[in-house]
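Methods: example folding runs. The two proteins below were folded one after another, and each record is reproduced exactly as written to the output file, sequence line first and structure-token line second.
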Amino acid sequence: MERDRVFLVGFMGSGKSTVGPLLAQRLGWPFLDLDSVIEASFGGPIHRIFAEHGEPCFRRMESDAVRNLERWNHCVAALGGGAFIEPRNRLHIKRSGLSVFLNLSPELVLERCPPDGTRPLLKDPASVQELYASRLPLYRLSDFEVDASLPPDRIVSTILEMTGLRPSPSRTASPPDHGH
């Protein structure tokens, strides 16, 4: 198994975009937020992709973005809440690096994520509970699981302890040259 990519997996609000940069900094690796990569590619926010093109279009964009991560060596990537649910993505992630599930209860998700319309799948407490319950068994297919209610620095330390990852000074943390 490759150990030069870490994929942070979990439900919305679990802290992937907070923990990811901290973990990347500790490792000396670049950080990629998959949702931000998709938004940059689309030229607008995810909730607009859902509204204008639907969830299937977004999921295709997400799968393309997951596959494009293979161009990066030594990186930490925060995946959107649904990215690990897709079997092809999960297979690609398993072949490409280590997956870490940041597990946060639905109750804490609702505390962290206001229903302000920026998260298309966050409708009401019952829908959050239902979606979380349906995704939990798939999230648990990750290589590692960490309690995401811990402080971010503690989550990072736990991930480093569990995975045995260490900074690699002989490797570059620069993105690959894609001819841009």
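Second run, written to the same file directly after the first:
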Amino acid sequence: MLAIGLLMKEHRLIERMIKLIDKEVQEMKGGKPPDGDFIDTAVDFIKMYADRCHHGKEEDILFRDLGKKNLSPEHKSTMEQLIKGHIWGRETVRKLVDARSRYVQGDQKARDEIIGQLEKLVKFYPPHIEKEDKHFFLPCMDYFTGEEKEAMLKECYDFDQKLIHEKYKAVVEKYEEGG
């Protein structure tokens, strides 16, 4: 149960960021130019925290272990939907990064695409999180023994410990390669 509590706690921070993204979208719809620093921060948050950290634990630990269980058809279908949602989110962020790059290079039409991609993320995350919190995580804990739950929690903590090193190693390697 503790591993699920950790994932649900991460959901609360993601929800807070989504509210900030929504505020930015509303301001842009009101005529404010895209705030490149905010967009870069939002992209980094979604890529590193929501996707790599949070979805990484879901996919690499929870879903992996659930895949070894005899899931009900409903739970199996829900897990597949959640994974597809994660893939969709990655593609949406990729499109956002592309639109931001084109906007910086002077493509004014990319502004609408930035708004559109941000809006997609704002609409995606709340129902995705609700599905996980209320309809998937808790019922799926019944598939695990107490020892399995403890092992997942330890693996989640170990996973988090590696992330900061992974991120900044990639930063250094990028610049070492001229980049």
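Comment on the second run: The chain has a mean pLDDT of 93.
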